[in-house]
Amino acid sequence: MARFLIGMGSGRCGTQSLAYLLNLQPRTQICHECLPLLPYTTNPSPEFVQRRFERLLQMSDKRRSPNDPDTEVVGDVASFYVCYVEKMLRTTPDLRVICLKRSREQVVDSFGRWIDSNRNYLADHWSRLLRADHFRDPVWSTIFPKFDAPSRSEAIGKYWDWYYAAVDKLRTQFPERVRCYATETLLNCRQEQSTMLQFAGYCLEEIVTIEKAHGNRVVSPNRAPTPLSTEELDKLGSKLMPIERNRCAVIVTNATNSGEGNSPQFEELKELGYSVRFIGGSTGNTAKLADDFSDQASQAMLAGFYSTYWLDSTQPWSLEELEDIRRSNPYLRSPLLFSVGESRLANDSPSRNLSVHRTWVHRRVFEHLQFACGLELLQDDSGHSVVPYFQDPGSISTCPATNSSPKVGYFLKSAITATANIASHLPMKTIDAPHTNAKDPKKTEINSTNPS
Questions:
Q1: In degrees rounded to 5, what are phi and psi of residue 277?
Q2: 58 by DSSP, 3-state: which?
Q3: What stretch of H or E contains 326?
Q4: Closest Cα partner for 8 from 73, 83, 107?
Q5: Angstrom distance (rounded) from CA 163 to CA 157
Q6: Helix or strand (DSSP H, E) at 31
Q7: 87: exposed, middle or buried (C-beta count within 10 Å: 0-12, 13-18, 19+)?
Q8: Going by DSSP bridges, is the β-strand pair 378-379/385-386 parallel, antiparallel, or unpaired?
Q9: Element holding 30 (H helix, E strand)
Q10: DSSP 8-state code for residue 76
């Protein structure tokens, strides 16, 4: 039976180099940030921890070639284990935990440069309240706790403080099974590596060390926009930032014909700078269509788009309306948003269908749905990530966000609730709460404050 080894550290502290060093040891299979990434939590269940061990064994079998000797050491290196190792240690007597620690200033600086060099938008994983020009990442923002801080850098610093206070507590609870090493010393000193590997359970005679480990350095050019100045943020006030066409993804549903993507209207959208994406029709299969909607929305968020505009290819629409909405850039605008309809098939049997048309959804709404409503991030072995923003209304009895019957769709009711609450999560802008039409309670109006 293989024994387990877990490596961790705040991030930007050499975890990839640690995984590389461990994998040099005989009969060892160590991952780096094994998928799915584990979300931040304060109380992981024993069942969840056990599934993680099973997942690591599964990944070890996949990585092992037929000619490799039997694996004796299995594990993973990632920052997110800080929330999980206490229960892992209590359930697995032979588990050893190795933690790396880099200086606070270096971690704060490296995180900032790394994030801005690898995204085309300004991301903030750590602040509880976001600046007007910063956004959540649908994947990586899930693994970090959130802190009250006036800037991203200060939030990262608070994260570092929290992280190593938790590590110190673990070292006190499990002094013989948890060790913490300075990054610069461990990765550049053979003697320190030998000491660490003996702690990890390797025999001195078979230990492999390296002269100098090169970390996951920031080498790519900065791609994120320049952050707004305090004066620029003040000028925005309660307004949303204007949006450029290349920051908007147009998602076309019910694209059943192969030639629809080449229609003059959609070609004109592409020429103007919009990104146009297509979803095929799934009449009668609302769960499949909801999954497709969620997948497209997730990929748009991961690609850094600030807004999505949803069109039904079977319904009329105009470029002029889209341009007007883009210029005003509301949080949410739609005359018909994720509605459920009854249609009749050729054999006269009823068929459920979902429709979304002329619908503008700002990134902030998707962010709030994910993080405030607690939607679970889904990841497969390839790293493909989906947040289930859309859910088949027929598969749930009540809407979790409103505790009411989802007659017009889970997404509509949740998005309205999210839009009403965005102001409490964004200190730089406000939004009027949606109100219900007194004559027809099914009609809900969204009032956003937008730039002219």
A1: -130, 155
A2: helix
A3: helix 319-328
A4: 83
A5: 10
A6: strand 28-32
A7: middle
A8: antiparallel
A9: strand 28-32
A10: E
Cα 131 to Cα 232, 304, 429: the distances in Å are 12, 16, 9
Q: Which residues pair with 75 in a beta bridge?
A: 5, 30
Work out the burial of residue 185: count CB atoms within 10 Å of its CB; fewer than 13 is exposed, 13-18 middle, 19 or more buried: middle
Contacts of 215 (CB under 8 A, 6+ apart): 14, 16, 17, 183, 187
Query: What is the percent of the chain where pLDDT is above 90?
Result: 55
Would you list the DSSP string of 82-149?
A: GGTHHHHHHH-TT-EEEEEE--HHHHHHHHHHHHHHS-SS-B-SSBSS--TT-B--TTGGGGS--B--
Q: Distance of CA 318 to CAs 296, 370, 385, Å? A: 22, 31, 32
Side chain identity at residue 71, one-letter code: T
Residue carrying structure tokens 């966000």: 401
- Lowest pLDDT segment from 84-88, 150-154, 238-242, 278-282: 238-242
CB proximity list for 270: less than 8 A, separation 6 or greater: 276
Question: What is the CB-side half-sphere exposure of residue 149 using CA atoms within 13 A?
Answer: 16
- pLDDT, residue 424, reads 54
CA distances (Å), origin 127, targets 101, 130, 246, 276 = 22, 6, 27, 32
Which residues fall within 8 angstroms of residue 178, CB to CB, at 6 or more apart? 85, 89, 96, 97, 99, 167, 170, 171
CB burial class (10 A; 0-12, 13-18, 19+) of residue 289?
A: buried
Could you tell me where the beta strands, DSSP code E, fall in 220-374?
Answer: 248-253, 275-278, 307-312, 332-333, 336-344, 350-357, 359-362
Compute the distance between CA of residue 452 and CA of residue 449 in angstroms, rounded to an integer.
9
Using alpha carbons only, what angle is made at residue 140 by residues 248 and 132, rounded to the nearest 5 degrees?
Answer: 50
d(CA 182, CA 46): 31
DSSP code of residue 202: -
Percent of the chain with pLDDT over 70: 75
Question: Does a cis peptide bond (omega within 30 degrees of 0) precede residue 406?
Answer: no
Rounded Cα distance, 63 and 61, in Å? 6
Pull the structure tokens for residue 350: 């009823």
pLDDT tens digits, 396-438:
433 333 333 333 345 655 666 666 666 555 543 333 323 233 3
What burial letters (b/e) apply to 9-46, b meaning 16+ CB within 10 Å?
bbbbbbbbbbbbbbbebeebbbbbbbbbbbeeeeebee
Q: pTM of the predicted model, to two decimals? A: 0.85
Model pLDDT, residue 284: 59
Tokens representing 305 are: 């788009």
